């Protein structure tokens, strides 16, 4: 099945070690479920101030978080054949801090968060335990297929 992804990348940070557009496209395409034929996604990489403002304004949480997902229409379910539309916002300082704290390569953590956000765009969530287990299993399968370690692995050996 041939998928088409139109990807826009916006960088609003001077952080280093950011993934490039081709890498982001590979990760998002890997996360697209079989019913998604086309997708238009904007990835915006921001600093702490913008990340905190967006999280406060849209989620009511007054801190910067690693990834925010914005669907084009929250009330529209993902329908096979319809284009997937949405935005992913990554807060570079949070992503970098988390990678260091978790002892993970920065690139691997970015990959995981992009996959996580792309699954959210498609309606996956982790509010209850069953949904969380399903989403984490999918994330692990996708991320490891892309050549990175299991993002939920807690040992360091």
UniProtKB/TrEMBL annotation:
<feature type="binding site">
    <location>
        <position position="120"/>
    </location>
    <ligand>
        <name>Zn(2+)</name>
    </ligand>
</feature>
<protein>
    <recommendedName>
        <fullName>Endoribonuclease YbeY</fullName>
        <ecNumber>3.1.-.-</ecNumber>
    </recommendedName>
</protein>
<keyword id="KW-0690">Ribosome biogenesis</keyword>
<dbReference type="InterPro" id="IPR020549">
    <property type="entry name" value="YbeY_CS"/>
</dbReference>
<keyword id="KW-0479">Metal-binding</keyword>
<comment type="similarity">
    <text>Belongs to the endoribonuclease YbeY family.</text>
</comment>
<keyword id="KW-0698">rRNA processing</keyword>
<dbReference type="InterPro" id="IPR023091">
    <property type="entry name" value="MetalPrtase_cat_dom_sf_prd"/>
</dbReference>
<keyword id="KW-0540">Nuclease</keyword>
<dbReference type="InterPro" id="IPR002036">
    <property type="entry name" value="YbeY"/>
</dbReference>
<keyword id="KW-0862">Zinc</keyword>
<feature type="binding site">
    <location>
        <position position="116"/>
    </location>
    <ligand>
        <name>Zn(2+)</name>
    </ligand>
</feature>
<feature type="binding site">
    <location>
        <position position="126"/>
    </location>
    <ligand>
        <name>Zn(2+)</name>
    </ligand>
</feature>
<keyword id="KW-0963">Cytoplasm</keyword>
<keyword id="KW-0378">Hydrolase</keyword>
<keyword id="KW-0255">Endonuclease</keyword>
<dbReference type="Pfam" id="PF02130">
    <property type="entry name" value="YbeY"/>
</dbReference>
<comment type="function">
    <text>Single strand-specific metallo-endoribonuclease involved in late-stage 70S ribosome quality control and in maturation of the 3' terminus of the 16S rRNA.</text>
</comment>
